Amino acid sequence: VAVKEENINLICTLKSQAEELVKMLTLFREGIMLLDEVDLILHPLKSELNFPIGEKFDLDGSEEGERWSLPIHLMDAFIYVQSGRISSFEQRGVASDILSRLSTAV
User: Using an 8 Å Cβ cutoff, are 81 and 106 in contact?
Assistant: First the structure.
């Protein structure tokens, strides 16, 4: 069977690419990655890590809504300083006292 010169060149090219791929996969398997800019990596709209695989599970703090109420709780401090209004969330416990002291300090 005669092999055309084009096919020999294609085979050599594919062999070279396969060898480079083996090097890259070995690096991924045996290497260590140092990640910087964690805020970008973990940001749900900026990260390219938004395609989870495997079994789905709830995020920490999502069972009783703490994960979502904490940012609202923190924003209420800024709103209270500006408007003097306390949300129903903030009226529990010592939150109103803390907000009053915060407003006085600012």
Answer: yes
Question: SS3 helix, strand, coil % of the chain, rounded to 5?
Answer: 55, 0, 45
Poorest-confidence range of 21-25, 33-37, 52-56?
Answer: 33-37
Which are the contacts of 93, defined by CB distance < 8 A and separation ≥ 6? none
pLDDT at residue 32, as a whole number: 79
For the purposes of burial, counting CB atoms within 10 Å of the CB of 87, is it exposed (0-12), middle (13-18) or buried (19 or more)? middle
The Cβ of residue 80 has, within 10 Å, a number of other Cβ atoms equal to 21
SS3 62: coil
Q: Taken in order 88, 89, 91, 96, is the CA torsion positive or negative? A: negative
- Cβ atoms < 10 Å from Cβ of 99: 21
| Averaged pLDDT, 90-103 | 75
Share of the chain above pLDDT 70, in %: 72
